[in-house]
Each structure stands twice: as structure tokens, then as C-alpha cells.
Amino acid sequence: MSEKIKTEKCQEYLQYRFTPEELKEKGLAMAQSTIEADNLEGQKKSVMSDFKVKIEAAQLQVNINARHIRDGFWFRNIDCEKVHDYATGTVSTFRTDTGECVKSRQMRPDERQQTIFRLAGAPEAESAE
Fold first, then answer.
1. Torsion angle of C-alpha atoms 119, 120, 124, 127, degrees rounded to 10
2. pLDDT tens digits for range 23-80
3. Where are the alpha helices (DSSP H) in the chain?
4. Are residues 70 and 85 in the same domain?
5. Residues 57 and 27 in one domain
6. Is the pLDDT of residue 128 over 50?
7. How far apart are CA 84 and CA 91, in angstroms?
8. What is the DSSP code (8-state) at residue 13?
9. Separation of alpha carbons 24 and 20, rounded Å
10. Owning domain of residue 50
């Protein structure tokens, strides 16, 4: 070899053309990546939907509590006692927790009819109304 030419090994960053086999492998890898990305996107939507439901439920509770604080009350079933006063011809409903009269009305004709036991002063079995 001539002493005027020197050769050495090196690497350069250059374009490389894929072989048909390599392109086929790349295509299969891309298809797999696409399927995986779609699956992850579906999972993301599902999780976001779940969180949306949870957030809406929490917001509903916030709204209910805010309304209770603002109004200072809410409606629920309260134990009461109906009193049929035959002397005045009225039926009054009293709360058992506070004793407050919540409504009073005139007796209906069928309520004015007393049984023989009531007229005689005998205790009558309580009726469910």
C-alpha cells in the first residue's frame, strides 16, 4: 500500500433504506402500536366517564348541603299524632317531637260518627291512619 493514502474505519449519520422485510416488520409494529393506543384511549374515556359520574355526585351533594344551609330546613317524615276532638268537631295533627300543631281541620261526616264503645267511654283500639 502506498504511503500517501491512509484509510481508517468511522461512522457517519446517513440515510438508510429499509429492506422489504424490515418494512414489513415496521408495519406490524405500527399496527400493534395503533391497537394499543386505541385500547388506552378507550380506557381513558372509561376512567374519565367514571370520574365524571363521581364528580357529578359530589357536586349534587354540595348543592344539597348548600340549599340546607341557605334554607335552614328540609322536608322529611316526622312522627305525628292525630287528635279527633269531638267536642269542637276538629281533627288536629301534632308533631310528637315538638308538640307543634301542624294542621287542623273540621271533621268529615264519616269521622263524626262515634262507635258505641266511644260513647260509653270505653278505651278504643288505636286506628292506623
1. -10
2. 999 999 999 999 999 999 999 999 999 999 999 999 999 999 999 999 999 999 999 9
3. 20-71, 109-112, 116-120
4. no
5. yes
6. no
7. 5
8. -
9. 6
10. 19-74
Pairing of the two strands 101-106 and 90-95? antiparallel
- Regarding whether 97 and 58 lie in a shared domain, the answer is no
Whether 4 is in a domain gets the answer no
Specify whether 26 is located in the same domain as 62: yes
pTM of the predicted protein model? 0.49
Classify residue 84 by its DSSP letter: E
Q: How far, in Å, CA of 70 to CA of 25, rounded?
A: 66
Residues 38 and 69 both lie in one domain: yes
Judge if 96 and 57 occupy the same domain.
no
Last residue of a domain, one of 57, 74, 91: 74
Q: Which amino acid is at 118?
A: R
Reading the block at residue 113, the C-alpha cell is 260518627
How far apart, in whole angstroms, are the C-alpha atoms of residue 70 and residue 59? 16
- C-alpha cell of residue 26: 415496521
